[in-house]
Amino acid sequence: MTVTSYIILGGLVLFIAIGAYYFMVSMIGPRKIEEIENLISRGKYRDAIVLLNRILEKDDRNMKALFLLGLCHQKSGDYSNAILNYRRCLKIGKFSPETPEGEVRKRLADCQLSIGNYTEAKNEYLILTQLQPDNYENYYEVGKLFQRGGLQPKAIKFLTQATRLNPAHAESWSSLGQAHFQMNNYHEAKNALQTATSLNGADPTAFYYLGLALRFLQDGEGALKALERAMKDDSLKARALLTRGLVLMDQKSYVQAVAEFQKGLKQVDRNSEIYLQLHYMAAAAAELNRDMHTAIEHWEKLHSIRPDYRDVSQKLKQYSEFRTDDSIKDFMIASGAQFEAIGRKMIENMGFSINQLNMHRDTAITSLVSESDASRRANRRFYALIYIQRDLNTVSENQMREFHEQMKERGAQRGLFMTVGEIAPAAVEFAGNRPIELFDASAIVEHVRGAMV
After folding, report:
1. How far apart are CA 246 and CA 38, in angstroms?
2. What is the dihedral of CA 279, 285, 290, 293, to 10 degrees?
3. Which residues partner with 194 through β-bridges?
4. Quick one: DSSP state of residue 423?
5. How many helices (H) and strands (E) does the chain have?
6. Domains of the chain listed by start with CATH number
7. Residue 21 exposed, middle or buried by CB count within 10 Å (0-12, 13-18, 19+)
8. What's the average model confidence in pLDDT over 281-310?
């Protein structure tokens, strides 16, 4: 054979060898990837990671291997390395049906969520809404992330689109209702949350927010029913009981409200903020019901935990007499008929004759009384107007002005204004320039005691 023939033969052998090598690689590569995918499906992530790293040592731009390596890290909870590999996929950008861009970005976004990188996750989902405009899940995730960031108008925009793309997705309706509630759009919140609860009757969060919305829409009965459903979730139970108590207070059912707040106290840790809120609202409901013993009990508990909580110190100071004097406690919780009888006795003990007496919502008494001016020869009778108030609202200047007008209208030359609460400085100044005698909480005590002997 000639030299030329040897050269041709050698070239042919080399060509066949190279072809055989690449044929074997092309056959072994997919087979190895299939084996790795089988390992992943069986949860053998460490073994799969070893094999994938070997592949990437030879070809560091292998998209399939990079994607699967990211998947292994994600499934084993190593989100930082998963993010690194998914980002390498995006940088290479050679997407295929085996490694579609949408799947890579979705998994990258999920990893970002898992480690609390909400802005990065939101950015990926925003891109996905462009890549997959008909996929409601991406709009839902973006909406939830805007909602988490307090950007409710943007949340509403994306969540609304999610409900349009998939009207049967209860979670989208629930999140949309919550976003509307945060914007004080109570009617829209109610409509969205009612849709959510009709699609999924086991979503306590949707029922909780529905109860909140119905309360603000003054549908107390509807709110109570929704909040009862929310109580099936232990994590929501205390908040649902707190809101149920507020609804009952709206309905002036103060005894039932206190009971709900006290149930809530059994559900929470005493170091939590809601524990303080429940005590405070229980005291407020008891105060409105004139159950001062219960109110003071809750205020004292609050004061022992956090002395500067809201106006608790002021309340305890205001009710200092009530904490030590049973007659004042009885005066506050007396029935309407008992309150009237005590009021009459107080007036008579001061030496007045009652001409007229009127009750006001069983919290106040107005009485036109007469007194004799013994120093005058004609023994002429003078009239006085007495007002006895047993609610704890601070007496304002306007209230004092109204009282003075009533004195003039009823021909009273003198006025006595008696309250268990405090009197505003402006009201004191107004009365000081007129024939009005004031009795605040400390001054009324002796008169109450004398009437209850």
Report:
1. 57
2. -20
3. none
4. B
5. 23, 5
6. 233-318 (1.25.40.10), 330-451 (3.40.1350.10)
7. exposed
8. 92
Both structure tokens of 334: 């007396």
The string over 379-398, giving b where at least 16 C-beta atoms fall within 10 Å of a residue's C-beta and e elsewhere, is: eeeebbbbbbbbbbeebebe
Q: At what angle do helices 326-333 and 441-451 cross, to 10 degrees?
A: 90
How buried is residue 240: exposed, middle or buried, by Cβ count under 10 Å (0-12/13-18/19+)?
Answer: buried
DSSP state of 268: S
Give Cα 107 distance to the centre of its chain: 32
Q: What is the DSSP secondary-structure string of 294-319?
A: HHHHHHHHHHHH-TTSTTHHHHHHHT
Q: Which long-range contacts (CB under 8 A, 24 or more apart) does 101-110 make?
A: 101/131, 102/128, 102/131, 102/132, 103/67, 104/67, 104/70, 105/131, 107/70, 107/71, 107/74, 107/82, 108/70, 108/83, 109/141, 110/74
State the chain's maximal CA–CA distance in angstroms: 164
Residue 22 has pLDDT above 80, yes or no: no
Q: How are beta strands 436-439 and 414-419 bridged, if at all?
A: parallel
Three-state secondary-structure class, residue 279:
helix
Predicted confidence at residue 328, as pLDDT, reads 78
Residue 417, burial from CB neighbour count under 10 angstroms (0-12, 13-18, 19+): buried
Mean pLDDT of 184-211: 98
Distance (Å, whole) CA 430 – CA 434: 7
Q: Position 447: which residue type?
A: H
d(CA 277, CA 281): 6
Torsions phi, psi for 379 (to 5 deg): 50, 45
Angle between helices 326-333 and 292-305 (to 10 degrees): 120
Do residues 195 and 173 lie in contact, with contact meaning Cβ atoms separated by under 8 Å?
Answer: yes
Q: Is the dihedral of CA 436, 440, 445, 451 positive or negative?
A: positive
Residue 440's Cβ-count burial label (10 Å; 0-12, 13-18, 19+) is middle
Mean pLDDT along residues 369-389: 76
C-alpha dihedral (289, 290, 293, 299), degrees to nearest 10: 80
User: Which residues sit opposite 388 in a β-bridge?
Assistant: 365, 418
pTM: 0.76
- Choose among 421, 282, 416, 261: nearest CA to 349: 416
Helix (H, G, I), strand (E, B) or coil at 252: coil
Please give the average per-residue pLDDT across 317-342, as a whole number.
81
User: Could you give the CA distance from residue 2 to residue 312 in angstroms, rounded to a whole number?
Assistant: 112
